[in-house]
Amino acid sequence: GESGLGRAFAEGMPATEFLRQAIGSSLVSTIAEYFAFFALVTSFLGMTLGLFDFLSDGLGIKERGWGIIALGLIIIVPTYYFAVNYARVFIVAMSTSGSYGDAILNGIMPVMMVWIGRYSRKLGGVPLVPGGRPVLIAIVLFYLASLGLELGEQLGLLDFQSRILTLD
Question: Cα 45–33–167 angle (5° rounding)?
Fold first, then answer.
């Protein structure tokens, strides 16, 4: 409505500030700050663990001894630098890596691995995903559409947020 959460968002007011004013308690802000902190930390930990194995494999660094230290420094130093000095860039990078990274790593790459294994290398075994080529193509098209929508929104060609705000 007129004084609803959509209007607060349109004015650039954080949702936590709006809720604090509406409820009349700072407890909401405190809980939201803790939630935001732990959301960021757990996201960072998840990305770090995935990147640790990825870089270990990609750079051929053993996950033992000095290799662990080298990998840790390669991951933590640039990330920490950008998080402290360019907080907005860090948040945008986390958001972007989540949307694009998930679509590519969890959607398109597994389908490509199945396709190559089944149809290029003719590997045997019981197919875990039934449906053959049509299903694999449908999955890739779904993830490509997802990537297209995300890219369209980031380039300003699509505007989902204003449509959501007008639903109030």
Answer: 100
If phi over 0 gives left and psi between -120 and 50 gives alpha, with beta otherwise, what is residue 59? alpha
Q: Which residues contact 88 (CB under 8 A, 6 or more apart)?
A: none
pTM beyond 0.85, yes or no = no
pLDDT over threshold 80, residue 4: no
Q: What is the CA radius of gyration of the chain?
A: 22
Distance in angstroms (rounded) separating the CA atoms of residues 109 and 96: 17
Decide if 166 is inside a domain. no
143, part of any domain = yes
Domain with 99 in it: 88-158
Same domain (yes/no): 32, 95: no
> Domain for residue 72, yes or no?
yes
